[in-house]
């Protein structure tokens, strides 16, 4: 949040505000969204820079969800001051951005320990210690010292352990303790621990190690203010902290800076009373006695150490209550062609194959089969073994098939794909996986599912069922191999409506794909790639003169069987 000065300000308050000396420590949960009339809030908005200063056009609470429209420029804060609390806020970004930040990173923030005159900092903000909400900089701390009527700085300080980087000071546990702002300065920023050194102030920016989910998905930010300590958690991970806060209490404000944001939860809890955990997640592995026939057959292909883990995707009996056909008996139809087919899946699972020498990458495999069966060996277990040889942990997704009557062909498979990615990301530490190195690889219909997993990562395909669903479902890299269904018709040229919205190049993850020229689905795949090229999205494609469709990595004398060689190099270079 750059320093600005705005002389014309509208402040709306209906009653005197409490002093810091009378700051309240919550004794039970305080729901800050329980007041849709905002009678207990003070609004402070710039008439010059706001698109609107009408309260109802700046902030709205409807059905328990706060919409910060972004049309205002300023903030609104509690009339009551607070101390010693655990703040819990769940948010998602909206699409709308306005004015000077129309094409800039979405910007909001929590103004904590706010004190002194409204607008004392640059005419726009109150003196405070801000928990920053800015794309790519979620969890930065901004310490703002406004000025009193005589021009003196209003003491606002925080001591943090930091390291110096080209982009400024960044929090580092055990680093050099420094007090911010430096003497004589009115403001300072302490970057969160993994802020991308290449951060750019542009809408949709995502750093390689960002912990927040993409726009449209819900995230949780927590700020624990105990005594003079100040600690920020994002989706369960500590990202920034300080101590010796001055003051150690104050009003709680929400910044409004030309970006739309929604908050479905905004609570204060007594210290130690909030026990919901987002950092450590567990989902019990499925014991062999509970494996389905397909699970047993798939697991039998695992010949090397370490052993595999079979994870159920859904709690309870493993099926989803909203599945139109939940009571299927799993089958393995055979045709004498050395292909394992698994059909009639109602209880999806994820088979996790760890590498003997893991490099931190993980690839979740989506076998093909037209969304009707799963080609679970040559497009599943054999691929997992190949990935393991490169140090990559592999997950084989046994997703639900066949297509459900009355639903689109991909509907239940997409639910399973999102859930699998979230489980792996939420338990990344348990499996020795980097949260920013989780990719998806799919064959044929699984290639279509691979692209859907990215294009609709922010879509809520099912209601969250547990803490795993707080993790992002966005894959970090994509490998659609001889993908099907990328166009409405096999030969193109009309892109599948579900894939027509192409994100900007900086938001598109690395993509590797390959097809054979005689594959009947090749024209559709290449037409999609041409669309990406027109949008300046970079990708790597290999087109082989022969090989047909549906061969996996099996050597069959056709040129396409060499596709793994460039793919191995591409994976290594990620």
Describe this structure in words.
By secondary structure, this protein is α+β, with helices and mostly antiparallel strands. The protein folds into two domains: 15-270, Sandwich (Jelly Rolls), CATH 2.60.120.560; 296-573, Alpha/Beta hydrolase fold, catalytic domain (Rossmann fold), CATH 3.40.50.1820. It contains eight helices and 30 strands. The strands form five sheets. Strands 2, 4, 5, 8, 12, 13, 14, 16, 17, 18 and 20 form an eleven-stranded antiparallel beta sheet that branches. Strands 1, 3, 6, 7, 9, 10, 11, 15 and 19 form a nine-stranded antiparallel beta sheet that branches. β16 (219-225) and β17 (230-234) form a beta hairpin. The protein is elongated and about 90 Å long. It starts with 8 loop residues before the first strand and ends with a helix. Mean pLDDT is 92; it is low at 2-9 and 12-18.
